[in-house]
């Protein structure tokens, strides 16, 4: 094995060696990334030198002279001196991805070539030349490229596409899809490129998936994995003589770079170098010193709240923060850590210890906190804490001795009870505690429902009628019982208890779309279907008296007409709350008993209870009772008549919508959430995410008033305590921060009474009900131990949640063990993400990714301002200017999708020259973006010269320059004043000469000077200054996408004489749906359509687009002549002539669209082979302990015809069209071929509007059958009268 078994000494050595990535070499020096910073070390190894402390530097690249190192920081290019590490920023892109790929030029003309996705509206990487002395970046080649190599000691150029680090760019190990590496080479430097096609030697017909190409002498070197693991290979510049140079196994060769003598690369966190002379690879021993990742650090608990639960009495809450639990009063008092930071034993000596994470928690009936941890994963491990606050009802039940023992255990911090269940394996989705005894229901990710009871070793178990509380002072064990399971995905969900703890209600999926509402008797194990799976049913809940069962159901179908497509949909929601009468003789609660006006008024004022069903429920178990004779009363038995129960369903008299939640208060109110979907404008980049559920309105239905009342707004969730007297409400504040409130169940918030006007509703406390968390919880973590936990969490999640139990045929445990040995090297969260990404790439599947936690603080890149222009420097005498070569326009009416300079009131156009920003003159070595750093979203003054005035302005500048510039102008004013004063003094002895008197003469002199260059000051200035709002990256991308789509549309219409339409679909989600219909309603009437799926990022709606494209006219709607043109039916249909454009960036559901398009025979497919990632995802994502996310596919995708083979292969187009580097600027060869194919499809004899005959004469049969002349008939009618 390349990674030896580790002991304590080897772990210490690995920790000081660090995790090395992205090396670059020049002579005897190697630069690399470790701990998110740049380091340098001698090529022979030794102690490394830290060059940066910015925590985010990446992709270092030595200059050929070795004096400078270019590197990326966030989205921009920096260089630093290799001698003294002084950094300097060269670009101000502000967003996207960037990495330096080559150095070009010599001396003062030196420049760095970078690959960046920052300026491309579709997010593709393009090559830009960035001058070392500063200035605007210049794009080198048309199209997508991410690597450039210059021939050593020659003129040749080699370009690469999709050759960047595979693991970090959506390509997995063994990848054979359409995004494999491409190489184009120009041996003569003439600008004419040829494709360097490299075939996989072990898979005939597949291209070699190469990365990190390097040009050394007469060969192209690269990393590739044709035989399983990535190693260094090389070919001649003609693409022949494939040779393998390294023999690594188990881990891949990554991030290879070279100079004229050696190649360096990273492998399993180590630095390796290989001499081109002897072609022997050697590990370079590097020492970084001891890491800081084992030092504890404090974090803000309020930023990482996972869950909050309410004590049965409502006077305490427990908060789950970053896997740790704290119990506290809602507003004051200490926050007690309920789970100390436990550390699991390492799997073997020398491995890193890991943090134990609590993943779920709930209070039991006895007030003890039950939590679930992953300490014994994959088995479920329970922890039961001693109660800090016992429920009132339980205190009445317990004798003084037991209360004394319980207090003793609590106050002295006795060890909690830990129970491990061997029978229960998998992830627990939710815990549902019984309201009357110590038992819980568990819903698992394996679609199972379990009952867990806590039993003493002597066999005593809690019972709602006799002994509701488990004896936690004795030895306990848990008795699990499987209640039900479903074979459907997400098959069992949302369980609840009856008030007596003898019944369980839950939802079970029994069909593709519907779910049954099941009632289960725990005494007899009999199941009753209360509502069958004809509809979707969810969120069942018993009322406190046990007479009703409420639930929500999608059985109210109220269609709306779509204004764009004229389709019918159910966009406003089809949910409604329903109620089941559990007893056969139960009374409909929505019908009042006969009442007098006085009684009705008293009842509405709250003075009496009109519903006998809830009598007594509000007074039972009152807290704070001083009656020493009070005793615990067992709950009343709930009786359910199973026969005919489905016929006793009643709908609540409220509007249909989208509902969730559901709970009963003790006084008989039913609480629920109703959300209203908000339509967000579909844009490529937007702060509004249509995938996020909007906050809802918390409502209560009062059976006293038979009315619905609003309690709170912006509510995301709520829960009631086990006694249904208090509620915990989570709301979304204006800054997207969650706030939590503890309120009286069913209470309106804020209160509407006049006496409550002075209440402070913003400060946490009893008045506002807001929970005070900030500064009360002290949270401390050890990063290295957290990372070890995250690693093990990912390992178990793959085993439990991946759709393929065999993990693609690899030995998952052995693979994870290899990567586990690299954990001691890690020094930063980014290194953990890198290691997990390589581990997950071993699965050989698409849609597998790992991301770190989001940075909540706005960075400088997010504040970078833009003007939405492409500008070039033009020299002028006296000072140059930036000429506007291209102006981003977008949708000028929408500030989120339009270029700032294209909006109304600015007036600038292409060809005009920008001369100043915020009254600071522009200069050649300072780009416009540099002048706009940290300016978003602010206003700036922009001064520009219209193109028609530029010549005159240049002449004025030249005149000023020849006159000494501004100082010369000031001198002109100062020298004119005494001369004028002297003349005035001779004429008028009484007055002294002043500068004011000299101004007319100075103006005459200046006017005369300006007339020399044909400038008339009476016509106003030659420039214009306007106020402009700078744009952020999202606005720039949105406007750029719109301009690109509009430009392509104009090209297609112009090339086809308006006969062929063009539609671009960026994804198969909300944005793609909006973009599709924006242009489909305009172009669907044309003779043919080109649908562009290039760079389509996938989604879920491909079948909707295919349904629309298959719609063809079946008839015509013909109006009266002169009142309109005949219209096809359906109006939105096509003429059946379709061309589909795809490329290697067409992904996921876009690929499914393309393959189904082919299977249905809808038209031609043009472009390049697609990505090759067709797997369903979204249902198996894992949120990590620190907020990061791991995404896994939850199911494979099978299509008729290709079956599973689209995965790791892609869709092969009918017409393959590449995009070579020598493509002329502005030309799109793939679009041109699509136009050609569309024109070939057109047939002038077909698909035209038919020659419609005259309207039929509907009364013609009477004319033909009449024998009597009409005059005689009319005369006989009059005689008859």
- Strand elements, count: 76
Mean pLDDT: 84
Which spans have pLDDT < 50 for at least 5 consecutive residues?
1-6, 610-630, 977-985, 987-991
- Please count the helical segments: 18
State the end-to-end distance. Answer: 117 Å
For the biggest sheet, the summary is:
6 strands, antiparallel
Reading side by side through the largest sheet, how are the strands ordered? 52-53-54-55-56-57
Envelope shape:
globular
- What value does the Rg take, in angstroms? 38 Å
Structural class: alpha+beta
Strand percentage lies at 25-35%
Give the proportion of residues in helices. 10-25%
Short description:
With 1281 residues, this protein is of the alpha+beta class. Helix content is 17%, strand content 30%.
Question: Describe it for me?
Answer:
The chain contains 18 helices and 76 strands. With 1281 residues, the protein is of the alpha+beta class. The strands form 21 sheets. A six-stranded antiparallel β-sheet has the order 52-53-54-55-56-57, with no helix packed on it. Helix 5 (783-801) runs antiparallel to helix 6 (812-820), helix 9 crosses helix 10 and helix 10 (965-987) packs across helix 11. The chain is globular and about 100 Å long. The chain starts with 7 loop residues before the first helix and ends with a helix.
